[in-house]
Every structure is written in structure tokens, then in C-alpha cells.
Amino acid sequence: MKGSSFITYLLLFFSGIFVVIMIYFAINILIINIVKSNYIASKRSAEFFASTLNSLFSSTANVSFIVILPKIDAKFYFYEDKVIAEIGNDVYSEKIFKPNYINLKVKNNPIVVRKEFQTQIFITKINNEIKIE
Amino acid sequence: MKSKSNNLKLQIHVIPEVSLDILMLIISLSFALGMFILYSEYNLELIKNDSNLTKIANFLEVVLGNKCLLYEKFNSKGILDYQKLSSGNLCMNLEYGLNFYVEGRKEFSFLKDCSKEKEVVRVPLLIAKNDKIVEGYVEAC
What we know:
The complex is a heterodimer. Chain A is of the alpha+beta class. Chain A has helices at 2-35, 37-58, and strands at 63-69, 74-78, 82-87, 90-95, 103-106, 111-113, 119-126, 129-132. In chain A, the strands form 2 sheets. A 4-stranded mixed β-sheet of chain A has the order 1-7-8-5, with no helix packed on it. In chain A, strands 4-3-2-6 form a 4-stranded antiparallel β-sheet. In chain B, strand 4 (121-129) and strand 5 form a beta hairpin. Chain B has a 5-stranded mixed β-sheet with strand order 1-4-5-2-3. Chain B starts with a helix and ends with a strand. Chain B is rod-shaped, with a radius of gyration of 30 Å. At the A-B interface, helix 1 and helix 2 of A face helix 1 and helix 2 of B.
């Protein structure tokens, strides 16, 4: 019986730790999904634009495509060495690696996205020139 | 005979209780461990992804399609010119170290040596050397 009660106390101890861990995880997941949702969105979008542009820099083909953005309030800045995504108060910048011979032309920098209507970004690559509008 | 039956009863009473406790302990521990693994992966994927590997891979992709390094006869991504490599003009700012290996030997090194770095991306490529295509690879760190 002594052994049994010891294991019960041990079980209680671990269940206490378990409850604390569960509360910690739940709070963290809530923080990630509610408080940091804009940060995640800005990081994802900056990474998307950076990897897309890097692929275009290294491509030898001429391509053009449209990016349909979701209905959110956001700003996207395109510079020679980085892409910055600003959603809400959260800003995330991602490096891009542009060779010297490529001209990056951006119409209306930053590109402003509004919640009210759908925004599309046209990306065109013709030889050594990339246009974003 | 009576004492034997008492012992048997005692054994039957004690063993299932202890085993149930142990089982509950194992279940709760495995549940907590499972939650921890799920949480850590969730967190890692969304927030704590500070690894440079994605940036290095992007950088390498640009290097492999760089017109200042491509072999003009094919003009195809991943086939580089030995002479252009030896000239050292990459037409871009080097953010990460680059090491080119031709036929297993390290021939060109830019910015830094990658052999001692932890985060290294290695990509195989073809190099046109004296109008012959030889195999090689590039490391970026």
C-alpha cells in the first residue's frame, strides 16, 4: 500500500506539472494566433516576394504573372537589396540578391493594399528588366 | 489453506491498483511529451525560424542563374563558365561565402571558407572548362 500511495503522489506531482505546461502552451498558441498574426503574415509575405524575385533574377526566361493579394491593410516596399512587408504595426524585411545588370522598376513604391477592395500586383520580366506594378 | 487464500486475495487487490497508477503515469507523461513536441514544432515553424538556410538557398539560386557566370553556349541555369569564374566578377554583392569545387577539388573561394561553418548549402553543378563539361559543386555559407 505504501508503494501505491507513493505512485499516487508522483502522479499528482506530474499532473500538476502537466497542467502548468498545458496552460503555458495554450497561452503561447493564443498569443501566436491573435497578437502575432500580423507579424506572421508580414514575414510570410516578405519571404514570398523575396523568393519570387530571387527566382526571377536567376531565370533566363521572360515571364509575367499576377499576384492576387488578400483583402488586408498592408504596404509592400521593394528596394534594391530588400523587400519590406508592413501589415498593421508589424514590419518584416527580407533580403534579396539582385545582380548588377538587372533593373528593378517599381511603380508606386510602396504598393499599398487596402481592406476594402482586391489588389493585384503585376510582375513582368523582360530580359534584364523587372517591372512591379 | 486459509492463509494461502488470504495471500492470494491480497495479491489480487494490490497488483491492479499499482499497475493502473503506472499506466496513468505513462499515459500522462506521453501526453505531456506529445504536446511539447507538437508545440515546439508549431512554434519553430511559425516564429522561431531564424535559420539562414533559406536566405543562403535563395542566394545560391541567384548565383547559379547569374549571367556573368553562365556558359554562353548553353545559357542555361547551373552550367557555369570556368574562365568567368576565374575572373572573379560575380556582378553582385556577396552576402555569403561561396566555394566552388571542380572535379572534387576546391578551385575558387569567395568571401570566406565554408568548411568550418555550420549552416552550409551545397548544390551540384556543371562547369565548362576548356570546352569540356565537368562536374562540380558549390557551397554557400
